[in-house]
Write a structure and sequence with these properties.
- There is one protein chain.
- The protein is mostly helical.
- The chain has six helices and no strands.
- Helix 5 packs across helix 6.
């Protein structure tokens, strides 16, 4: 009988926690929660914004990682009084920055061309034709 009672209480507590999770999540100490160890699906539900480790957009802009099509300067937050750039967000993904800079050095191309090459390489690795955007799977069927 005790086992049934404990099971019922545990089920009741879990159901209540699931029902009131929107009210309970803000009460969690997110500053002490190891978010990098959580699965991605749970991580995005628990934390509204998880900064990417790395530099700043200002450093990326100064490093040449901007163009007319990918304008970082227009995306930076500015102080309304002084007009100075005061963007608290971290910059671009560090791994992607390194890959783009490596492509720019090896192939002597512009920032936009390097971004395109990186995107096409990622599409090829995922089994997607970079020219059409369609999967290269032999079982893929389209209806037009």
């Amino acid at each position: 009988m005790l086992l049934y009672t404990l099971t019922f209480i545990a089920l009741l507590l879990c159901s209540a926690a699931a029902y009131f999770r929107a009210r309970l999540i803000p009460l969690l100490p997110l500053d002490r929660l190891p978010l990098d160890r959580l699965p991605l699906g749970l991580r995005t539900r628990v934390a509204a914004y998880i900064p990417v480790p790395g530099g700043s957009f200002q450093e990326d802009l100064e490093g040449g990682l901007s163009s007319a099509e990918f304008d970082l300067a227009g995306n930076l937050a500015r102080d309304e009084v002084t007009g100075a750039q005061v963007d608290p967000r971290t910059g671009l993904d560090a791994a992607a920055k390194r890959q783009i800079q490596q492509i720019m050095k090896q192939k002597r191309c512009t920032f936009d061309q390097a971004r395109l090459i990186l995107l096409q390489d990622r599409m090829k690795a995922a089994g997607i034709d970079p020219q059409t955007g369609l999967p290269r799977d032999s079982k893929f069927v389209t209806f037009s």
